[in-house]
TrEMBL record:
It comes from the Bacteria. GO terms for cellular component: plasma membrane. This is Exosortase/archaeosortase family protein. Keywords: Cell membrane, Hydrolase, Membrane, Protease, Transmembrane, Transmembrane helix. The chain crosses the membrane at residues 68-86, 93-111, 131-156. NCBIfam families: exo_archaeo, exosort_XrtP. GO terms for molecular function: peptidase activity. It is a multi-pass membrane protein. GO terms for biological process: proteolysis. It is found in: Cell membrane.
Length: 159
């Protein structure tokens, strides 16, 4: 039964990715509202958060399918389903590991958004967006995703 539920979650991440991105951008907006001294506005229909409102560097950031954490969580869910199907007795470890790794990927993606926002605020829109999205943002995603994968494997397979 758990394998079927995990595969349904995986399908949901693919077919309902727009809803997932909307939730993720709401989370970004909430975090930015807490730490920003400027205005923040979320437009759920466009999966967009506008930040820096009232500052010299306002910017809208759209959560595209390539920028969401859903497609980093998806392989973890599928691998977790396969692991449970092959060895049902490790179900609780795999589910715990999956929860930790999925949470880590979401947190890393939020940190990536915060990195981008901070660099736009510090370096301006053109330079800050380039460094925050293309370079540092990608590095944060790669290292964070790798750390989540290592944590998943370690937690799921340890005795």
């Amino acid at each position: 039964m758990t394998v079927v539920v995990l595969l349904a979650v995986a399908a949901g991440l693919v077919f309902a990715h727009r809803l997932y991105r909307t939730v993720e951008i709401f989370l970004s907006g909430a975090v930015l509202s807490v730490i920003s001294s400027y205005g923040v506005h979320v437009v759920p229909d466009r999966q967009t958060v506008y930040f820096g409102l009232g500052s010299d560097t306002p910017l809208g950031l759209r959560m595209t399918p390539e920028c969401t954490s859903a497609f980093l969580v998806l392989p973890l869910v599928v691998v977790g389903a396969v692991m449970i199907a092959l060895r049902p007795r490790i179900q609780s470890r795999v589910l715990f590991a999956l929860g930790v790794a999925a949470l880590a990927v979401v947190v890393v993606n939020q940190f990536r958004v915060l990195t981008l926002v901070g660099l736009v605020d510090w370096l301006g829109v053109d330079t800050g967006y380039y460094w925050g999205h293309t370079l540092l943002g990608s590095m944060v995603s790669v290292f964070g995703g790798a750390a989540a994968l290592v944590a998943f494997v370690w937690l799921a397979t340890r005795k």
